[in-house]
Specification:
single chain, about 20% strand, Rossmann fold, 17 strands, BirA Bifunctional Protein, domain 2, nine-stranded mixed beta sheet, elongated, alpha+beta, binds histidyl-adenosine monophosphate, about 450 residues
């Protein structure tokens, strides 16, 4: 049993490290962000799904990637000795759900969700230990039209945050190209290829010298040619820097050609939709092991928000984890933390909406029943009404209504109860309209 003695230390009012409390002001912003997400994705015909925050830990071991699983998950053993993880991302849960009902579902399947996710990260600007993430995924489309559609949705969301196309950039890469480079050009085994991709992923976070040392360790004599390739200025430059090592017919070469063609197709397709702020980025890796093709991220060009706003890609093999055959899948995630930062940077945070349309001020306790009845009748007309139940002085009650920016007040005293004549006062103009219970409207 819990026992609180007078001597016991007072509990801290701080939230747990790296997680947030949402007071009403923050919650209003959060609601606005979710509203942008929902309305945008629903115009593309996506359906919402959800699931529990708890998953068996093994779900993440296979494909989420070592860093996420070993360093960033909240994992514990439950009372039945099962290893359980608070989900750090939604994609494995989604793959599990789609695999479970695959026969009944109609493809192409367009689904979205707004889960709360948990990652044990070092809290810093743009990164917390708990965040809400919009997930948008499409299953059953083999062509790059799936990438084009999802990136198009992401761009619509960026615009809804208040950014112009010139304020942000879509960066693209393709795992197939990276696979070709590591396997066919540099003949790396799977482990070294994996190490190299993690090194590239860290490129911007470590010193140039440390990066070179890492590349040397993995690639030896090939490190220099790799650095030249990695430093290519643009897509054409990158293509011309690619060492041609294998005959045309090898599977590696096939991967390369498909990889390059997919990049071109996505860039062309988006250009046709008017999206030109898009570029190939050979250093873009993405941390998850499940991606199999195009990967993309979206960045605000204002350096104050230097973290990726969106991250996603194609993951055609993930469903095979559950014994099913392959299902083409493309999707992205985007978080609420960066959404808020962007809306702050671009001055598009929502203006706060008062909590009620009318405040009823009660003068004299004996008039409370009448006030309650009046409130009930107004609410039935969808008017949002709050009654001050504080028994404070009238002037204090009016001041409080004003502090909360409630636009209208009605004072209820003996006179009003007797006559049924109600004065609705507009708090901005000071104007009063005499009405009866039945005629009050906004
Ligand atoms: P992700 O890149 O790990 O991808 O996360 C996507 C987005 O979620 C990031 O760009 C960022 O906006 C936000 N985010 C991630 N971690 C944090 C954090 N600790 N604090 C605040 N915001 C964060 C995925 O999670 C993939 N599962 C996305 C996906 C869906 N791929 C295919 N479908």
């Amino acid at each position: 049993m819990y026992h609180m003695s007078n001597k016991s230390k007072k509990l801290s009012t701080d939230a747990y490290k790296g997680v947030r409390d949402f007071f009403p002001k923050e919650m209003a912003i959060e609601k606005k962000i979710f509203d942008i997400w929902r309305t945008t994705v629903e115009t593309y015909g996506y359906e919402e799904y959800s699931a529990s925050v708890l998953e068996p830990s093994e779900l993440y071991r296979a494909k989420s990637g070592e860093e996420i699983v070993n360093e960033q998950t909240y994992t514990f053993t439950d009372r039945g000795d099962r290893e359980v993880t608070l989900r750090p991302e939604m994609t494995p849960t989604l793959a599990r759900m789609v695999a479970a009902k695959k026969r009944e579902l109609v493809f192409p399947l367009r689904w979205y969700s707004i889960p709360n996710l948990f990652r044990y990260e070092q809290p810093q600007r743009g990164r917390v230990r708990e965040h809400w993430q919009l997930n948008v995924d499409i299953f059953g489309v083999e062509s790059t039209n799936a990438e084009i559609e999802t990136i198009n949705i992401a761009c619509d969301i960026m615009r809804a945050y208040g950014l112009k196309d010139t304020d942000f950039e879509v960066r693209l890469n393709n795992r197939k190209i990276m696979d070709y480079i590591t396997r066919d050009i540099y003949s790396l085994n799977e482990q070294s290829a994996h190490k190299l991709s993690k090194l590239i992923d860290k490129k911007d976070k470590i010193k140039t010298e440390a990066f070179k040392i890492g590349a040397n360790e993995i690639l030896g004599n090939n490190a220099q040619s790799f650095l030249t390739l990695l430093n290519s200025k643009n897509f054409e430059d990158f293509v011309s820097n690619l060492p041609q090592t294998k005959e045309e017919t090898s599977s590696g070469s096939y991967d390369l050609h498909t990889g390059l063609a997919e990049i071109r197709a996505v860039i062309d397709g988006l250009e046709k939709l008017g999206i030109t702020n898009i570029r190939f980025d050979q250093t873009l890796m993405r941390g998850f092991d499940y991606y199999t093709g195009i990967v993309f991220e979206i960045f605000d060009l204002n350096p104050i928000n230097h973290r990726a706003v969106f991250g996603g890609g194609r993951y055609d093999d993930l469903l095979s984890l559950f014994g099913n055959e392959k299902v083409s899948a493309v999707g992205f995630g985007t978080g609420d933390v960066i959404a808020r930062d962007l809306m702050e940077t671009y001055n598009s945070l929502p203006v706060s909406n008062p909590s009620a349309d009318i405040a009823i001020i009660v003068i004299g306790e004996q008039n409370t029943p009448y006030a309650l009845e009046l409130a009930k009748s107004l609410r039935s007309k969808k008017i949002r009404v709050v009654i001050d139940l504080s028994k404070k002085k009238i002037s204090d009650q009016i001041k409080n209504a004003d502090k909360k920016s409630i636009p209208r007040i009605i004072c209820i005293g003996d006179e009003e109860v007797k006559t049924g004549k109600l004065r609705v006062k507009n708090m901005t103009t000071g104007e009063e309209i005499i009405s009866s219970e039945d005629t009050i409207s906004l």
